[in-house]
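Q: A reviewer asked whether we had any structural model of the full assembly, not just the individual parts. We don't, so I'm hoping you can provide one. Inputs are below.
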Amino acid sequence: MDKPLKKPSRIQIRNRKVILEAALEVFSRYGFRGATLDQIAEQAAMSKPNILYYFEGKEAIHDALLTRLLETWLDPLREMDAQGDPKSEILGYVRRKLDMSRDFPRESRLFANEILQGAPRMMPVLEGELKALVDEKVAVIRGWIAAGKMAEMDPYHLIFSIWALTQHYADFDSQIRAVLGHDGAIAEAEPFMEALFTRLLAR
Amino acid sequence: MDKPLKKPSRIQIRNRKVILEAALEVFSRYGFRGATLDQIAEQAAMSKPNILYYFEGKEAIHDALLTRLLETWLDPLREMDAQGDPKSEILGYVRRKLDMSRDFPRESRLFANEILQGAPRMMPVLEGELKALVDEKVAVIRGWIAAGKMAEMDPYHLIFSIWALTQHYADFDSQIRAVLGHDGAIAEAEPFMEALFTRLLAR
DNA sequence: TAAGTTTTTTACCATTTGGTAAAACCAACG
DNA sequence: CGTTGGTTTTACCAAATGGTAAAAAACTTA
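A: Here is a predicted structure for the entire assembly that you could use as a starting point for your response.
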């Protein structure tokens, strides 16, 4: 049923990458429904039928992007180590998420668009993989709190607050730039976040 | 040039409201480009030409929603009083924003969609009205800091952090529900936010 | 109730959109 | 050199989409 059962050629590898890069640009701005194959084709400097030679259809491109995103999206949280010191582990998580907002803002917006629309394609992953990972780390944080190593608080909302604060700088970038009148908000945000979480975690 | 120069009839008032309500539902989910007039028509239980009898076109409906949104969107920040106590003023602002996320999640998502897409229609307002209001309140906060009434910090990022934390609960609702496995996250979030900002502001 | 006005429906239309068929092209390799 | 397999283009298509014209229906008011 699938098109390429053999190993992909050099041209295939290159063109798939070009298409995914173009599609990321378009999907991250307009969401799945708002994006068009013609836009992606233009961005990729390729004809529309040629794009459909490499991917089964619009949905397949979007799925490929989401799948690729998931491979790295959860890494920063996975790295949080139960054996480590709460403050440095959580600040490390914040820094890694902030780095991702700086280095991969389009991926962040792609994710935001999917969630805004009710996560029609990612809901199973959210309820499965993501929930499992969060539950695991919540247990870790509960352990730290029970051991008196950090202040008492709801670990779920601690994690939500980290997501909110860090992703905001990628997703609402245009608003932030409009208000500040300049770029580089994330660099300014880092010391602010460090102070915020330092004060929050202290017992 | 405009259609109704006279005062609108009762039917006009009712149907415009029905259309805007339906359009809010659709635009807040799919964004401007991803939403269709047919979806709005179905949601409004009205024929498409009938909708176009009340509004000039798709864009006019969207504009009407954004305009209506702006009337109340900035109110919570406007209410922040320079004469008041920093802690209660800022906590009050957080609570009002959180209330808006609970009571008007669709409006929050409509706004989020617009910003995600680079604010093509709202950029002038962001650079004008919003920036002016934020600059004013930043000056107020700087005054509080200078008077030793709260901890030192970057007031811009304090405001950004309030936007991020409060709006996250409306915009990323489906993710939060997937992870928690239940509703009512905002009710849980309120004490968390209070603790967070109490600790952040204390000198 | 009849005339005038507003509202709604029916029947369209041009463009856009996701997608396909098949011809043309091209890069090896025997 | 010519054949073979992968790649790209050209020419389409059906459905969806934003929008319009005009008739029909419903409501108002003299």
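A: Points you may want to mention in the reply: The longest helix of chain A spans residues 10-34. Chain A touches chain B through 53 residues (CB under 8 Å).
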